[in-house]
Amino acid sequence: MATDDLTLVKRVRSGDQRAFKLLVERYQRKVYAVALGMLKDKEEAMDVSQEAFVKVYKYLDHFKGDASFYTWLYRITSNICIDVLRKRRGGGEPVEFDETQDVDLSEARIGALGSRLGTNPQKSALRKELAEKIQEALATVPEKHRAILLLREIEGMSYEDLARTLDIPKGTVMSRLFHARAKVQKILGDYLELDEAKSGVGNE
Amino acid sequence: MERHLAACRDCTGRAADLRAESGLLRVGLDMAVDDVDFKDFAQKVMARVTPEKPPLIERMRLALSEMFLYQRTAMISSLATAAVVLLVALPLVLRDNAPEGYAAERMTVKSIQSYQGARVAPVVMETEGGGSIIWMVDEQEQAPEPAKDAAGQKKPGVTNPDESSTEPQDEEGQPSPAPSVPPRPTGGAL
């Protein structure tokens, strides 16, 4: 049976390097996936993933253990990603997403994505072009919303965990998640509509 | 909620969209992550978190404790195998050291002892292989030699009852010195 995260953290604190390696191996893929989803650059995502683990090791004494290890790890990862995105923009303030703005969820579009992709998204996502479109859609979502969407979808975090990880109220989590999803759905829906019109591919 | 979803077309559509989008995101990112080789990732992180080497004793202590912690089964089976090998090999090695007799290929001198007052004559036999067998032969007790002065002359009055008949004499009737023939081994208990 795999050793749980908190036991490994305790071992790392007592100087067991191998325990930290186990933690790295356990979360490396997911941390990288979050970083890649946030940054859209493989090299940067790899650097950020490594940096996140180095910071975790460095500040392990700050980890209280009242929340799960991975929420703390993802918080560090998403914060580093946000810093990188800020630097990329030249240190300017992030473009905040206006959460009061109405999202286009007209009646005609409801269920469009679901009906076009059917029940097997894996089969559709195998198309490289669609995978690229997903990355593109994510890129249009503001970084804070993107972080929530990625943590929710990749790690399957609950609203409570997301609120703890990102240190924001649960209501904000729900609001940002709703807007992020709406935006991604719209882009993917547009793409699939266009795609369908062109070749009819995308239907099951 | 299930009842509502079954009745509400809007909510059913939105739930389908949600599932499709969620699945797409997961699979899309999984595909992107699958392209990456994580073979050296942990090594690189570990190299960054441990830039300086701890002392040798500390490293050995950690390595041992980690081995017992993470590879306990392998360690225990290795130690058990080593113990069995030692148990089998040790008697063989020790037996090889002991001499097996004169005809054996290898003989080892374990110790040489000399007995005070004993008169022994060594017989050295060289083998074809270059080895030597040293045979100590007990010498029969010989009668004490007559006392001689510093010049080798016999002291007057000191006689040996056998001397007159056994000692050769030269032409002038003077007794010639005894030939320096080594005492002949006469054998003894082996």
Explain how this protein is built:
Chain A has helices at 5-13, 17-39, 42-58, 69-88, 112-117, 121-125, 128-139, 143-154, 159-166, 170-199. Chain A has 204 residues and is mainly α. Chain A starts with a helix and ends in a 5-residue tail after the last helix. Chain A is 70% helix and 0% strand. In chain A, helix 1 (5-13) packs across helix 2 and helix 3 (42-58) crosses helix 4. Chain A has two domains: 5-88, Orthogonal Bundle (Rna Polymerase Sigma Factor, Chain: A), CATH 1.10.1740; 107-199, Arc Repressor Mutant, subunit A. Chain B has 190 residues and is mainly alpha-helical. Among the domains of chain B are: 2-37; 54-92. Helices cover 45% and strands 7% of the residues of chain B. Chain B is built from six helices and two strands; from the N terminus they run αααααββα. Chain B has a two-stranded antiparallel sheet. In chain B, strand 1 and strand 2 form a beta hairpin. Chain B is rod-shaped and about 130 Å long. The model of chain B is unreliable at 147-171 (pLDDT under 50). The interface between A and B is large, with 51 and 38 residues.
Write the layout of secondary structure elements.
The complex is a heterodimer of chains A (204) and B (190).
Chain A: H1 5-13, H2 17-39, H3 42-58, H4 69-88, H5 112-117, H6 121-125, H7 128-139, H8 143-154, H9 159-166, H10 170-199
Chain B: H1 2-7, H2 9-34, H3 41-49, H4 56-70, H5 72-97, E1 120-126, E2 132-138, H6 163-166
Antiparallel strand pairs in B: 1-2
Helix pairs in contact in B: 4-5
Domain RNA polymerase sigma-70 region (chain A): 23-89
GO biological process, one term (chain A): DNA-templated transcription initiation
Family (chain A): Belongs to the sigma-70 factor family. ECF subfamily.
